[in-house]
């Protein structure tokens, strides 16, 4: 007795036209802008904590870093801006947009500020799917919109 | 009756709402940002990101695939459901290229709304294909510009070669309630998947 699993059915038989070249390749790329967004991260472009997603919520730690840390006032202006934005819970994407920092740069700096004890990063376990109750709450919330 | 805000903080100090992420995908100029803006409680924000356009998502990029990096802009908005739950809507960058950006967007997402202009169906093939491979719940939402569709929904379904289990709806990206209803179709589908996965 084998349960049927419709999700594992065969892929659609027809192939979407042009799909083989829909990747669009590098041909029509615009040249990179003159900005050097990763100067702030001392050139680091990876090593980002995978828990820090676009929607991940970040809050400033009210008591700041443990003793021995640098006072917020003495941090680089970009870092101070990030900490100020996190007075209320805010997503990484919002920090990036409001601080006008590249998303990749923002993720690295948020990771740095967490490691240094200025910020709390409220990472969701993305390996776990959303539970039905959470989805139901979103459904009820959207239905209430008029 | 005036709403009197509670004097207590919205959430206990140091805690944060659970973010629920939905991706709004589709080709260039199909109305993704309009969709996000219609329902978002804030004006859509824009963040810039590096996108590496290697052959991510393509089975065999071949040995000669070069990597190029471009800066793309991504629009997003949000809807506060309650004190502990916040819905985020992320529009994919206008270009339909595959890239790490898409993986970032889709990682941890509840599902995707693929916005389609029924007059330019081929723009959405990459998005449909991408979410199919990822097995992420998605809904095809045909944006009815001026209330008209160039093709009926059955014709769109046939042209996109999507499975009959994938919902396909007509909506108006400029209309808040229409966007809400399209999202509700997606949430119903995501809920069905979530319930099913609980019983495995």
Oligomer: heterodimer
Number of strands of chain B: 7
| Major sheet characteristics of chain A | 3 strands, antiparallel
The assigned structural class of chain A equals mainly alpha
Segments of chain A where pLDDT lies below 50 for 5+ residues? 20-35
State the largest interface. Answer: A-B, 62 and 73 residues
N-end to C-end Cα span of chain B:
48 Å
Unreliable stretches of chain B (pLDDT < 50, length at least 5) are: 6-11, 54-65
Describe the protein in words.
The complex is a heterodimer of chains A (146) and B (200). Chain A is mainly α and 146 residues long. Chain A has helices spanning 77-85, 92-99, 103-115, 132-143; strands at 57-60, 90-91, 119-122. Chain A has a three-stranded antiparallel sheet. The longest helix of chain A has 13 residues, at 103-115. With 200 residues, chain B is an alpha/beta fold. Chain B is 28% helix and 28% strand. The chains are: A mainly alpha (146), B alpha/beta (200). At the A-B interface, strand 1, helix 2, helix 3 and helix 4 of A face strand 1, strand 2, strand 3, strand 4 and helix 3 of B.
Reconstruct the topology from this structure.
The complex is a heterodimer of chains A (146) and B (200).
Chain A: E1 57-60, H1 77-85, E2 90-91, H2 92-99, H3 103-115, E3 119-122, H4 132-143
Chain B: E1 18-26, H1 32-39, E2 45-52, E3 69-82, E4 85-91, H2 100-106, E5 111-117, H3 125-134, E6 138-143, H4 153-160, E7 168-171, H5 176-198
Helix pairs in contact in B: 1-5
Quick description:
The complex is a heterodimer of chains A (146) and B (200). With 146 residues, chain A is mostly helical.
């Amino acid at each position: 007795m084998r349960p049927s699993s419709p999700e594992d059915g065969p892929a659609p038989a027809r192939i979407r036209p042009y799909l083989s070249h829909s990747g669009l390749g590098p041909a029509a790329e615009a040249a990179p802008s003159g900005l050097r967004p990763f100067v702030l991260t001392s050139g680091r472009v990876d090593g980002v904590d995978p828990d820090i997603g676009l929607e991940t919520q970040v809050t400033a730690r009210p008591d700041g870093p443990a003793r021995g840390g640098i006072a917020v006032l003495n941090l680089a202006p970009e870092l101070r801006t990030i900490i100020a934005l996190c007075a209320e819970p805010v997503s990484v994407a919002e920090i990036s947009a409001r601080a006008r920092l590249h998303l990749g740069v923002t993720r690295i700096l948020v990771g740095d500020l967490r490691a240094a004890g200025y910020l709390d990063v409220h990472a969701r376990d993305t390996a776990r799917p959303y539970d039905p109750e959470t989805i139901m709450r979103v459904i009820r919330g959207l239905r209430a919109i008029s | 009756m005036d709403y009197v805000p509670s004097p207590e903080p919205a959430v206990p100090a140091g805690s944060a709402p659970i973010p629920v992420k939905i991706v709004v995908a589709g080709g260039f100029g199909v109305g993704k940002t309009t969709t996000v803006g219609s329902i978002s409680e804030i004006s859509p924000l824009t963040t810039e990101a590096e996108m590496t356009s290697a052959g991510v998502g393509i089975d065999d990029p071949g040995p000669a695939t070069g990597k190029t990096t471009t800066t793309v802009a991504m629009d997003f908005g949000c809807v506060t459901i309650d004190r502990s739950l916040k819905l985020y809507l992320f529009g994919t960058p206008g270009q339909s290229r595959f890239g790490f950006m898409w993986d970032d967007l889709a990682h941890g997402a509840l599902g995707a709304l693929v916005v389609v202009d029924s007059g330019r169906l081929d723009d959405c093939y990459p998005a449909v294909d991408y979410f199919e491979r990822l097995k992420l719940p998605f809904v095809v939402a045909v944006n009815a510009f001026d209330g008209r569709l160039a093709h009926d929904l059955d014709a769109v379904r046939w042209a996109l070669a999507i499975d009959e289990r994938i919902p396909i709806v007509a909506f108006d990206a400029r209309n808040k309630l229409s966007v809400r209803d399209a999202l509700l179709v997606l949430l119903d589908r995501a809920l069905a998947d979530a319930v099913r996965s609980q019983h495995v």
